[in-house]
């Protein structure tokens, strides 16, 4: 039987009332990699649609029934991605609408790449229905977006699967010297109960290059980061060092900066704190002085640790009088409780911290 053809649909939009992006360059480089230099070029069909409106997206999906959809353009988080209206101006399409569209093609669609700023919210909604979705967790530079896209499709064109292609694309950003390799986020569908195709006889087989190699079936652990806002620089650095654990699907890290506009922040924090399986405490004098961090978040975290419903890991960031606190009986990091700021190399300190977190995460996953 002939190898099934992989159809990749490239959609792009740059409405006239938005900042100009280098979408032509991205599209040209993808085409060069897949159609000109790929040894498997005969296994791909590349369809490009520019200046797309919502109706254009629907028509393209109907006409081409792709296995991969790639969107390039602007994103604004919860409000949606920027398509065009009939006049070429901005038309936002939210996550629910996109997820509903792609759900119609869940029998054949394998991966959606949202190469737009703040598009992770769309990826999370889309992956409820298809195996893979990639979104951006923050604002991403034009150059980084292009490096990611080109390397992703170069890997697919070489016969690699989606997960390898994603990692290859993140490395490409690093190789280009752009400090944004942690912004693209790959989401995987929970396939414990895969949907049955509505019409199995019409289902297109999954192309081999999109099939992932066997991976761990463990779900990522939810991680809550408790910190004082006056220590935000340390929290941001920790998030950077946690990127590999996140990319490997071992953790989902949450912090209060993830609270969406209009949400009740206190209720959201309490909900995330109760749901977390691992709770990280960034210990500094400011943390100990904060009534909210110490009396609410830390106290409840230690209660859950004692109940056996969460693992609490105190991270000693700065020198402070933490002995005798409710968490002082717990094993702290870095090693020997040496504050991160006392290490000659801060990266070495954060590496030691993350290694401790990794051991705890893998131990908890092994018990599931």
What is the structural class? alpha/beta
Q: Total helix count?
A: 12
Helix content: 25-40%
CATH architecture of the largest domain: 3-Layer(aba) Sandwich
Strand content: 15-25%
CATH class of the largest domain: Alpha Beta
Could you explain the architecture of this structure?
The structure is a single chain. This protein is α/β, with parallel strands linked by helices. The chain has 2 domains: 6-210, Rossmann fold; 221-367, 3-Layer(aba) Sandwich (Rossmann fold). 39% of the residues lie in helices and 17% in strands. The chain is built from 12 helices and 12 strands. The strands form 3 sheets. Strands 2-1-3-6-7-8 form a 6-stranded mixed sheet, sandwiched between helices. The protein has a 4-stranded parallel sheet with strand order 10-9-11-12, with helices on both faces. β4 and β5 (90-93) form a beta hairpin. α3 packs parallel to α4 (120-126). It is elongated.
Which structural traits does this protein have?
39% helix, six-stranded mixed sheet, 2 domains, 368 residues, alpha/beta, 12 helices, Rossmann fold, four-stranded parallel sheet
């Amino acid at each position: 039987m002939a190898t099934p053809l992989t159809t990749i649909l490239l959609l792009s939009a740059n409405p006239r009332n938005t900042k100009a992006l280098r979408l032509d360059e991205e599209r040209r480089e993808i085409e060069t990699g897949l159609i000109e230099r790929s040894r498997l070029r005969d296994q791909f069909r590349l369809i490009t649609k520019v200046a797309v409106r919502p109706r254009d997206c629907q028509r393209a999906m109907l006409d081409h029934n792709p296995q991969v959809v790639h969107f390039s353009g602007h994103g604004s988080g919860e409000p949606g991605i920027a398509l065009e209206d009939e006049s070429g101006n901005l038309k936002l399409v939210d996550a629910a609408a996109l997820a509903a569209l792609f759900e119609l093609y869940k029998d054949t669609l394998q991966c959606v790449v949202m190469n737009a700023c703040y598009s992770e919210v769309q990826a999370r909604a889309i992956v409820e229905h298809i195996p893979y979705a990639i979104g951006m967790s923050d604002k991403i530079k034009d150059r980084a977006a292009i490096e990611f896209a080109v390397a992703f499709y170069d890997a697919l064109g070489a016969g690699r699967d989606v997960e390898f292609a994603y990692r290859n694309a993140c490395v490409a950003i690093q190789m280009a010297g752009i400090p944004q390799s942690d912004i693209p986020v790959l989401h995987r569908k929970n396939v414990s109960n895969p949907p049955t195709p509505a019409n199995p006889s019409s289902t297109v087989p999954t192309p081999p290059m999109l099939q992932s190699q066997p991976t761990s079936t463990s779900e990522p652990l939810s991680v809550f980061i408790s910190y004082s806002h006056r220590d935000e620089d340390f929290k941001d650095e920790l998030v950077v060092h946690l990127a590999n654990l996140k990319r490997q699907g071992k953790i989902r890290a949450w912090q209060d900066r993830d609270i969406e506009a209009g949400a009740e922040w206190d209720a959201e924090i309490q909900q995330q704190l109760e749901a977390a399986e691992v709770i990280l405490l960034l210990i500094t004098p400011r943390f100990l002085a904060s009534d909210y961090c110490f009396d609410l978040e830390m106290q409840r975290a230690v209660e859950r640790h004692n109940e056996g419903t969460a693992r609490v890991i105190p991270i000693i960031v700065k020198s402070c009088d933490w002995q005798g606190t409710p968490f002082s009986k717990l094993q702290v990091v870095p090693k020997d409780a040496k504050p991160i700021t006392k290490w000659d190399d801060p990266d070495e300190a954060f590496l030691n911290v993350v290694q401790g977190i990794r051991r705890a995460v893998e131990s908890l996953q092994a018990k599931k």
